[in-house]
Amino acid sequence: MSDTSNARSGGDRVAVIGLGSMGAGMARSLLRAGFAVAGFDVNPAAVRMFEDGGGTGASSPAAAAAEASAVISVVLNAAQTEAVLFGDGGCAAAMPEGSVFISSATMAPSAARDLAARLGDFGVHYLDAPISGGAQRAAEGALTILASGPPAAMAAAETVLAAMAAKVFRLGEEVGTAAGLKIVNQLLAGVHIAVACEAMAFANAHHLDLATVYDVIKNSAGNSWMFENRVPHILDHDYTPRSATDIFVKDLGIVLDIARADRIPVPLASTALQSFLMTSAAGMGREDDASVFRLYERIRGSRGDETAALRPNDH
After folding, report:
1. 201/286 Cα distance (integer angstroms)
2. How do strand 36-40 and strand 10-17 relate by DSSP bridges?
3. Which of 16, 97, 111, 290 could form a disulfide with 230 if both were Cys (CB 3.0 to 4.6 A apart)?
4. What CATH number does domain 179-314 carry, 1.25.40.10, 1.10.1040.10, 1.10.486.10, 3.50.40.10?
5. DSSP label at 284?
6. What pLDDT, on a 0 to 100 scale, did the predictor assign at position 78?
7. Burial profile 80-92: b = 16 or more Cβ within 10 angstroms, e = fewer
8. Cα 144–47–102 angle (5° rounding)?
């Protein structure tokens, strides 16, 4: 793995921590925009792939962040973000004073505020900046980014955000605002995926042609972005993880943790979480979240075979 000493310094240098499907696409977008990009991931294969695409691999978050004007953290949750910042080889102490840490993990607003306060002791800005749009839009530099934080943090991140996003919602100066709005989005997204899969399983049980169901619903009032995006995975029998089932186990779990603490009833989110949990427990946690459809088919006993389950006339 190469070190980061040959990358340009100053405003042209950024770091991406977490080179999974989202982070890798964001890093490629930054490279296309002319930034020198250093990247780190706990998976060495992801770092090698990043290097093959023109990036500079790093051996730790700290090594990636040295001399970078901005660090984008694309990890799962608050605990992983804390480790990226303050754990062994964490980047907080390595980041130049006045640089900005752009946090894209889904987390509770209170966690974002705590991390921002701790990072402030290092003279580094924190931008609360969760993302939406999926791996394809990340690779295209066409994400939606929800951003909140002090004006100095926003200004320091401006050119980096522009390289990764088609739309940036600037939500004010308070860290935690963007995190809270992302939780609302994930509540809706999780419920919409679960109910789309349920509806398709219901249609399949009634011997309807699923391609026709998809075409009709996407042009009708029952459509949603998630229905239109996920049902093709079902029709194509393709459960390659664009967004894995376990992502919504995590994100809806955060929704329920917040709801329980704040005494907010969320019965639909709770039911959707159970659908993802059951799908994960059935061995599909790392597969596409449209696998909730396969769970319904297995419960219903459609030959135990998702391909057969998509041939309604054979039932």
Report:
1. 21
2. parallel
3. 290
4. 1.10.1040.10
5. I
6. 96
7. bbbbbbbbebbbb
8. 35
Residue type, 70: A
Take residue 111 and report the two structure tokens written for it.
């966690």
Candidates 252, 84, 230, 245; CA nearest to 182 is: 252
Segment 150-164 shows an average pLDDT of: 97
Residue 311 banded pLDDT, cuts 50, 70, 90: very low
Burial of 131 (0-12, 13-18, 19+ CB in 10 A): buried
Look at residue 21 and tell me whether its pLDDT is greater than 80.
Answer: yes
Token pair for residue 64? 């990636």
Report the C-alpha gap between 108 and 115 in whole angstroms. 11
pTM value?
0.87
CATH of 10-173, one of 3.40.50.12780, 1.20.1730.10, 3.40.50.720, 3.40.50.300: 3.40.50.720
Same fold, 10-173 and 179-314: no
Q: By C-alpha distance, which of 196, 187, 180 is closest to 269?
A: 187
Q: What is the mean pLDDT of residues 178-207?
A: 97
What would the pLDDT profile of 102-119 be if each residue is shown by its tens digit? 999 999 999 999 999 999
Position of tokens 């329980």? 260
Tokens matching residue 216? 């009709």
> What is the rounded distance in angstroms from the CA atom of residue 2 to the CA atom of residue 40?
11
- Read off the pLDDT of residues 235-251 as tens digits, 9 standing for 90 and up: 999 999 989 999 999 99
Lowest-confidence pick of 60-64, 174-178, 202-206, 308-312: 308-312
Residues with a known catalytic role: 182
Domain boundaries, the chain: 10-173, 179-314
Instruction: Report CA 258 to chain centroid distance, whole Å.
Output: 19
User: Cα 243 to chain center, whole Å?
Assistant: 8
